[in-house]
Amino acid sequence: MPTLRIDVVTIFPEMFDALVGHGISGRAAERALFQMHRWNPRDLTEDAYRRVDDRPFGGGPGMVMLAEPLARTLDAISEAQLEERVRSQARADVKKAPVIYLSPRGAPLTQQRVCELAELTELTLLCGRYEGIDERLLRARVDEEIAIGDFVVSGGELPAMMLIDAVVRWLPGAVQDFASVQEDSFTRGLLDCSHYTRPEDWRGLRVPDVLLGGHHERIREWRRQEALLTTQQRRPELLTSARKQGWLDSADERTLSRIGDQAKAP
Ligand code: 4HQ
Q: What's the pTM?
């Protein structure tokens, strides 16, 4: 299994310490299930001020990231990726790593895309700051723009870390219990069911009886119904696409019509 190589372009490389220093992504990094390389475009500037940004043409507030330091950085990354392929005797047919720019203008990230990215052997992530990056660099060098959500954050670093975290969980060996990754929310297009742990009675609030009975088939059914009900109530549009994907069976449909009947009952 070839390890995933992730190259990140960022003027704040230290932010990624949080990702490789903690939790599942930290352990996956320790075990070399993926390798992350951080590249600061400031290091590839040649002026005395090490400028990576400038004022926008046409005026207006904020600054725009310069194309040239980023192009140099991406060139250096391509070269390093090539060397690595030679060193690791990678298959001759490996495609060039896609360059992904994290941006609210991108396509919303989905679990489907996360799983696809986890199959790659190389990934280049571009993190913007300020108002964003000169459009010419994006047109010339970016393969895909991805948004982490319909809201604005101060830079692409946190969105990139979220993407990496989501991808790394899918690498074989990253999570002890792989079933739990597959069972999680969204993998089958539904929200996750509710979870309970000890004590059975917490301040007068009891755990649903079915979970205490040890009847595994009934528990499995209850969890599925719970997931369907929660999805119906909170994200009905997810249910519509799960149905289109053919992810709901006839038992699911019976559960959902029972829920509908209860909702309609006087
Ligand atoms: N930004 N999903 C603006 C985001 C963002 C998002 C990253 C802020 C890029 C220039 N990225 N910079 N939402 O809000 O990915």
A: 0.95
The CATH fold of domain 183-264: Trp Operon Repressor; Chain A (1.10.1270)
Q: What's the pLDDT tens digit per position in 58-105?
A: 999 999 999 999 999 999 999 999 999 999 999 888 888 999 999 999
Angle at 73 between CA 72 and CA 76, to 5 degrees: 90
Distance 18 CA to ligand 1 centre (A): 19
Q: Are 153 and 159 within 8 A, CB to CB?
A: yes
CATH of domain 4-168: 3.40.1280.10
How many A from CA of 103 to the centre of ligand 1? 4
The Cα–Cα gap between 171 and 252 comes to: 30
Ligand 1 pocket test: pick from 152, 163, 165 the residue with the most ligand atoms within 8 Å of its Cβ.
152
